Amino acid sequence: MTYFCNVEAILANRKIIHVDMDAFYASVEQMDDPDLRGKPLAVGGGGKRGVVSAASYEARVFGVRSAMPGFKARKLCPDLIFVRPRFDRYKEISSQIRKIFFEFTDLVEPLSLDEAYLDVTENKKGNPSASLIAKEIRQRIFDEVGLTASAGISINKFVAKVASDYNKPNGQKTVNPEEVIDFLEGLDVKKFYGVGKVTQAKMYQMGIYTGKDLKSKSEEFLIQNFGKSGGHYYRIVRGIHLSEVKPNRERKSLAAERTFNENIASEIYMLERLESIAEELQKRLKNNKVSGRTVTLKIRYSDFTLQTRSKTLPYFVNDAAILLETAKELLYQDKMKDSVRLLGISLSNLNTGKKETKKKEEVEIIQLRFDF
């Protein structure tokens, strides 16, 4: 497939910054409690059923990572200190950081409490250098909030996000327009945002280890082996990613879930837990004033394997009784392969706005030159 376009119309000489806070939850805890500074710290549960939500850099040295079971983290680091998450505090700090972002541009797209994209092509400071803006933002966060942040700067969101992880912690990486292709070709495919462990392993088996290897494959080959994602991989390794920074990101789903102290094998007990989960989800839906049509049941088994089962209803719902009834139907849809450690219900296909008609991206790779 040939990609072509008017570069001014599509890329518009964009200057995108991806700001990513360093070990955010853990750093907030260490900031608020000086006794925790310099020590291996995990935010989350350290018990038999607990999971690490975030790990300080002192803990990461031992291999402790987010989403890791608490018992495994303790084995890797016996001196690991666990603290319970304080999301109200994290939201408070995140709000302070976003206020700093908005002093530079109104085009801010938060991805989570600890990271965001900023389009500074035209900014409130009148500064033509996105690199200097990123440096100033990071300094402001440190001076006014007390935390460090890392940043990636480039011509699109994908490259900026990959670059933000390059010089962590407390660093930044600028990938100038003329450097984008070489930068992507030299990366291990596991560094590509969106390439998970399963896809990474599959690529390795095919001899695709770097961006250069990925770029050597045809679009047809990638689509044949990776489905729709293949087309995405074909474009991003060529520096093509046209997604704009969207200040008002529409919520795609809402969910509630529970991890149990003991594994559950009885479906009767599962239904009891699902009832409270459905009620919690109803509260969240009504607080956000949304309804949805697609109900998804999430099941994590005792061996940590994950299974999801979904059903799309012909009408929008936000009622706990309907959510529970649908989740019950999904539960009985197939036999359980093992005891269960986590159950969750999510609702997607929300009535949050009109869907835009997607247009196929047709762009040519053109070398851009402007002050970064």
From TrEMBL:
**Required cofactors, per record?**
Mg(2+)
Which enzyme class? transferase
Concerning InterPro entries, the annotation shows: DNA/RNA_pol_sf, DNA_pol_Y-fam_lit_finger_sf, DNA_pol_Y-fam_little_finger, DNA_polymerase-Y, DNApol_IV, PolY_HhH_motif, Rev_trsase/Diguanyl_cyclase, UmuC
* GO process annotations (BP): DNA repair; DNA-templated DNA replication; error-prone translesion synthesis; SOS response
Q: Which PANTHER family match?
A: DNA POLYMERASE KAPPA, DNA REPAIR POLYMERASE UMUC / TRANSFERASE FAMILY MEMBER
Does the entry feature the keyword Acetylation, yes or no?
no
What would be an example GO MF term here? magnesium ion binding
What is the role of the protein in this entry? Poorly processive, error-prone DNA polymerase involved in untargeted mutagenesis. Copies undamaged DNA at stalled replication forks, which arise in vivo from mismatched or misaligned primer ends. These misaligned primers can be extended by PolIV. Exhibits no 3'-5' exonuclease (proofreading) activity. May be involved in translesional synthesis, in conjunction with the beta clamp from PolIII.
Every UmuC domain range: 16-196
The record's keywords, sorted A to Z, are:
Cytoplasm, DNA damage, DNA repair, DNA replication, DNA-binding, DNA-directed DNA polymerase, Magnesium, Metal-binding, Mutator protein, Nucleotidyltransferase, Transferase
The active site consists of 115
Q: How is the cofactor bound?
A: Binds 2 magnesium ions per subunit.
Listed binding positions for Mg(2+) are: 20, 114
Tell me the compartments it is located in. Answer: Cytoplasm
Q: Can you say what this protein is called?
A: DNA polymerase IV
A cellular-component GO term for this protein: cytosol
Q: Which SUPFAM superfamilies match?
A: DNA/RNA polymerases, Lesion bypass DNA polymerase (Y-family), little finger domain
Predominant location category: cytoplasm
Q: Which family does it belong to?
A: Belongs to the DNA polymerase type-Y family.
State the PROSITE patterns in the record. Answer: UMUC
Which lineage do the record's taxonomy fields give for this organism? Bacteria, Pseudomonadati, Bacteroidota, Flavobacteriia, Flavobacteriales
Query: Which is a Pfam family this sequence falls into?
Result: IMS
Q: Which organism is it from?
A: Aquimarina muelleri
Q: How does it assemble?
A: Monomer.
In this chain, the site described as Substrate discrimination is at 25
Return the EC number. 2.7.7.7
